[in-house]
Specification:
By secondary structure, this protein is of the alpha/beta class. It has two domains: 114 residues, Rossmann fold; 108 residues, Rossmann fold. The chain contains seven helices and twelve strands. The strands form two sheets. A six-stranded parallel β-sheet has the order 3-2-1-4-5-12, sandwiched between helices. Helix 2 packs across helix 3. The longest helix has 14 residues.
Length: 240
């Protein structure tokens, strides 16, 4: 197989990395746990934008770039597409299909933070599952609201915000307990997508809790786009 640089960011990327031999590179931004049981090389850290990634590709003799970053990591995906083009190699992408609302869901899409805050006005006890972004706005919390934030790590909150540090997978009974104990009346989520339904969305449906969904960013075009790990692995088999 040609030498592959796999940019990770979603759970499915690790499944692909587990199939790769020592000549290939699995690249992680450094957020979260770093696997130590892979046969391929593992690189942790950024590249310094598209130019830095281009230079790395050339220095390492990479033949194919596979973007398996998070659907909301738009800048990284843009850098990947640009670097592949500048290096003269193909860029493929694993892009999770978005979740679709089901019967009983009350989903309301918002485009940005300003639109989100406006949509939050009627609510008192929101649960944020957007990562660290809400931490930048803790001094803007209205007096009548109390925020619960869930992120990968624990961060300082304030008198109107508690930050929960927790890593998935999350189980539906635990999510039910969280919603009940904190009396959550609105959920804020990215539409990350995956092969399994997110338990927090199931609990919101059960409880009739509205969900404010942050709109997915536009991602660059690539040579080939895949919706599942199986599709990616089948395509990799065809490479010499």
């Amino acid at each position: 197989m040609k030498r592959l640089l796999l940019l990770g960011g979603v759970t499915e990327a690790l499944s692909i990395a587990r199939t790769l031999g020592p000549q290939h590179i699995y690249s992680l931004a450094g957020v979260g746990r770093v696997p130590t049981d892979l046969n391929c090389q593992v690189r942790v850290g950024g590249y310094g934008g598209a130019e830095g990634l281009t230079q790395f590709i050339k220095d390492q003799g990479i033949d194919l770039l596979l973007d398996a970053t998070h659907p909301y990591a738009a800048q990284i995906s843009r850098n990947a597409a640009t670097a592949a083009q500048q290096s003269g190699i193909p860029c493929w992408a694993l892009r999770r299909p978005a979740w679709q609302a089901q019967a009983g869901d009350d989903w309301r899409e918002v485009s940005d933070w300003a639109e989100l805050i406006e949509a939050l006005r009627p609510f008192k006890r929101p649960l944020f599952t957007l990562g660290r972004e809400p931490l930048q706005h803790l001094d803007e919390i209205p007096l009548e609201q109390f925020w619960t934030l869930r992120a990968l790590e624990v961060y300082p909150g304030n008198e109107r915000c508690e930050v929960i540090g927790a890593r998935g997978p999350f189980f539906i009974e635990d999510e039910r307990t969280l919603f009940e104990r904190r009396q959550i009346d609105v959920l804020i989520s990215k539409n990350s997508g995956s092969s399994a339904t997110d338990p927090k969305l199931e609990v919101a449906r059960e409880r009739g809790v509205p969900v404010l969904i942050l709109k997915r960013p536009e991602l660059p075009g690539v040579e080939r786009e895949f919706g599942s790990v199986i599709e990616v692995l089948e395509a990799l088999k065809t490479l010499g």
